[in-house]
Design brief:
- It is a single chain.
- By secondary structure, the chain is mainly α.
- It contains 17 helices and no strands.
- It has one domain (41-457).
- The protein has helices at 18-36, 40-95, 99-113, 116-147, 157-163, 167-182, 186-210, 217-246, 257-285, 291-304, 309-327, 331-358, 360-367, 375-389, 394-400, 404-429, 431-457.
- Helix 4 runs antiparallel to helix 6 (167-182).
């Protein structure tokens, strides 16, 4: 009989302490439960994981596109593109007229109650109203920029006007994303916007390069317009076909437009104040620094901002459940559920922040060596993002329960706080001042929202430590 050599190397897993082995086994079992479980929590966690995976993949694509743009355009033209596209995002979310979120509140309720006429009505109204509203907003914005161009930096004028062509397409896709999520089709909602659109944008821009066209901010904007059109129309056709299998086209549409607009209008304010707050730093920086510095700040903020994908992924998966539980009177389930969603939001955000910051320097270097000067900005912004994550899905919860005006009020207050902080700190500390202003505002916003949830609903959404251990 041959015996095992005494100097054989032990398996790496065998060298781990028993406590770590136990935790690894528990994590493995929990992950298996999520993937194979039939219960509601498992389905929701699968949706959140899918949403997160889409956003992670989209982050990779976004990085490819942004690095490609930065390399091809140079910091000056890239800074112009980044600044103008920020305004497309701000006005695009506003142009959805609040229906990008209100459909998530109403569609699950109409489905549960079998009110297919109202379901068809809100599907039709949300698209028409947002599309027409976006045309008005885009035309007005382009006219104002053209009329007041003598008071603007001239290299922003034409790119801004061209970018407004994208606004109706952007708004329609924003509403369709909310529609798909409200049916529980996270893939149909997120893939076209966050995977297909950036892939097409890179492809169209690559074609322009191959055709030896001038590679400028305008070229990049035309590529984005084309990508938004193709991905948006494809998403609309796919959703129509899938919805028709659930709700026959012959169903008579019932309209409650006044009620829907009343419920959606505060969400317009929420979108305005939220997006202005998220990009007010870039707006203030525009008065003090050149486009190349804006490009550095934009790259650093977008890099650490990947941490916020956790919040988005969980919200996309659970938002419709807040509405369903509330309408169904499931108060105990709701109480438990809000704490679950906070854990699903906070702990992964901590892990993501640590990981992203650890590789942040080489990620910024991909844009160009000059972009690494923005690395300290990532640390400053990460603090605000994580403090905000302590409040879990507070704003989603309030919006789904009909407290949109309260959320809008909080966002308005923190918007002014962010603006004042930026005006005070940017002249002193430049890019770091803008980052500090945004970080303070994010933290303040999370704390206020969690307190507001407690006062209005009696639910405790703030992260609990101590005996409550993080769960998968």
């Amino acid at each position: 009989m041959t015996s095992c050599p005494t100097n054989a190397k032990p398996n790496l897993i065998d060298t781990l302490p028993k406590g770590n082995l136990s935790r690894l086994a528990q994590a493995k079992d929990s992950f298996k439960d999520i993937l194979a479980g039939k219960d509601e929590d498992s389905r929701l966690q699968r949706s959140a994981l899918f949403a997160l995976s889409v956003r992670v993949m989209s982050a990779g694509l976004a990085y490819l596109s942004q690095v490609f743009l930065a390399r091809m355009l140079g910091t000056f033209d890239y800074g112009i593109f980044a600044y103008v596209w920020v305004w497309v995002i701000i006005l695009g979310h506003v142009s959805s007229m609040g229906f990008n979120q209100s459909v998530v509140r109403f569609i699950p309720v109409y489905l549960d109650r079998g009110q297919h006429g109202l379901l068809r009505g809100i599907l039709n109204s949300s698209r028409i109203i947002s599309f027409l509203g976006s045309i008005v907003i885009a035309s007005s914005a382009a006219f104002l920029v053209y009329y007041f161009q003598d008071y603007m930096t001239n290299y922003y004028v034409l790119p801004f006007i061209i970018a407004m062509i994208c606004l109706p397409l952007f708004a329609l896709q924003d509403v369709q994303e909310g529609t798909a999520i409200s049916f529980g089709w996270v893939n149909a909602g997120l893939v076209p916007t966050y995977l297909v659109r950036p892939t097409l944008m890179i492809s169209f821009l690559a074609v322009a390069v191959a055709m030896e066209l001038p590679v400028t901010a305008l070229t990049a904007l035309w590529a984005m317009i084309a990508a938004t059109f193709v991905s948006g129309v494809g998403q609309m056709l796919f959703l129509n076909r899938r919805i028709n299998k659930i709700v026959p086209k012959q169903v008579k549409k019932d309209y409650n437009v006044k009620f829907w607009l009343t419920a959606s209008f505060p969400l317009v304010l929420v979108n305005i104040f939220y997006n202005l707050q998220m990009y007010i730093d870039l707006t203030v920086l525009n008065f003090y620094v050149k486009p190349d510095q804006i490009a550095i700040y934009f790259a650093a903020a977008k890099t650490v901002g990947l941490t916020s994908f956790i919040h988005f992924a969980v919200g996309a998966a659970v938002g419709k459940n807040f509405s369903s539980y509330h309408e169904g009177g499931k108060h105990e389930r709701m109480k438990e559920f809000v704490q679950q969603t906070t854990r699903w939001t906070f702990w992964p955000a901590v892990g993501a922040a640590i990981f992203i910051i650890s590789i942040g320097y080489p990620l910024l270097w991909l844009f160009g060596s000059e972009f690494t000067s923005g690395y300290p900005i990532m640390f400053i912004l990460a603090v605000g993002i994580l403090v905000h994550a302590l409040a879990g899905q507070a704003e989603y919860l309030l919006n789904m329960l009909g407290y949109q005006y309260y959320v809008a009020s909080v966002y308005l207050g923190t918007l002014f706080a962010n603006l004042l902080l930026n005006i005070a700190l940017v002249p002193i500390w430049g890019l770091e001042g803008a980052a500090l202003s945004t970080s303070i505002t994010l933290a303040l916003q999370g704390l206020i929202l969690s307190r507001l949830v407690k006062r209005l609903t009696g639910l405790d959404v703030f992260m609990k430590f101590g005996k409550d251990k993080p769960q998968t």
